[in-house]
Prior knowledge:
Layout lengths: L1 H12 L5 E3 L7 H13 L5 E3 L6 H14 L5 E3 L6 H14 L5 E3 L6 H12 L7 E3 L8 H10 L19 H15 L2
Parallel strand pairs: 1-2, 2-3, 3-4, 4-5
Helix pairs in contact: 1-2, 2-3, 3-4, 4-5, 5-6, 6-7
Amino acid sequence: MGGAKVIANALANNHVLTSLDLDQNKISHVGAMMIGKALEINTSLKHLDLNDNSIGAIGAKEISKGLMVNNALARLDLNHCEIGEVGAKAIAEALANNHALTSLSLEANNIRDGGAMAFAAALTNNTTLKTLTLGTGNNISDRGAKIISDALDKNNSLTSLGYLDNGNISAEVIEELKVKLEKRTGF
């Protein structure tokens, strides 16, 4: 907790740092709370990597509070952070109101279909996110992937879903997603 507090305090007062990699730093929900508060006032950080930290759903909720008001952060990596469905819903809610984030990575968080549905709802309001990486380890089924596909009909900014083939989604739904995204990128 001590290191996260020092980093959060530095972030809150920093106007120069644009990228911060905190991958595998044993940051818990308490550290995530401090980082979330720092995001509320930081105006320079563009990329934050919190991969492989045990922030959990509580930490994701705290990060989401920062995302609600942050107008600078463009890329957030939360792979392997144990956020689950509840944490995914909090991040998705923030995404619906955030107009700075262009890339969000959430692999291996077990967000399930409930989290996928929350991101689908957020995509109907969000106009800045270009890349959403849900990847493997989220246990999203055809149901969740299809709802994301339907949301793409209302969202024109997303151009990449990263690697979504996790073994639970049928080839038909994956192909539907690919076709919709290819129409946007011309590839």
